[in-house]
């Protein structure tokens, strides 16, 4: 068990590297993860969301009750900024329908687990991050299909009911099951040990999803690749900036502004990939966009967290020098 806990910690710290490595290897050996598709992919996503659920406690829900205003602002920002930014990027860049659908799918997804990790790394407000991720995840079965329909319905046919069912099966039910088990067995030493290995399992799950997409769509990764990269990077960066601005507008603390920036900018692109593969198989480029977003958001989130930490360290050094000189 100690080995598994250490492995989980290693995987959590090296999420981005593992995902990129899996993507590269699978590109050259596509049959490696060709089995991760369809129902298997949805099942993997369910395991990832279950791993999130087992970390949610009743204290998290009590926190939501104590901070309704903050959570409300976060939820509104989550489901307005990124969907609308995705829509306007698609319009301004006159994107083809397949790429437009992919970026809109990413924009309409809730926050993901990786945002909680990035919030911790950048010295943000972790409880606030967990609260935002929890609320956006609970709202996702209704909000994600509705927003995709509103923003992409003129471009392609949107199976809203099918998306709702998929999100219920792969997201909401696993999260609630994980929460229930945490509530029921939170005092069990065995359960606590299982909780410590779940982050590593989630990372492996993300890698499997990326591997599955690359194995099926790898040949398409270099079709419109520059456009996809620019669109994904722009969408992510604008989300980071606008999230921070919203926090500043409401005079949040520095920690909460950073948290809002990370939470708004980083979506559950793994869910977007699962939805693209399950419901838009006839539009393969959409899944490529969501897969690129999975990788890019991890890289960009890590970079932003590092910048925030370096800024803090510089301020600390400057303050220390000022104190000495005084």
UniProtKB/TrEMBL annotation:
This protein's UniProt keywords: Membrane, Transmembrane, Transmembrane helix
One Pfam family linked to the record: SBF
Gene Ontology cellular component list: membrane
Membrane protein topology class: Multi-pass membrane protein
UniProt keyword Metal-binding, yes or no: no
Spans traversing the lipid bilayer: 16-36, 42-59, 71-93, 99-121, 128-152, 158-181, 201-220, 226-247, 259-280, 286-308
Keyword Transmembrane: yes
InterPro entries per UniProt: BilAc:Na_symport/Acr3 (IPR002657), Bilac:Na_transpt (IPR004710), Na+/solute_symporter_sf (IPR038770)
Official protein name in the record: BASS family bile acid:Na+ symporter
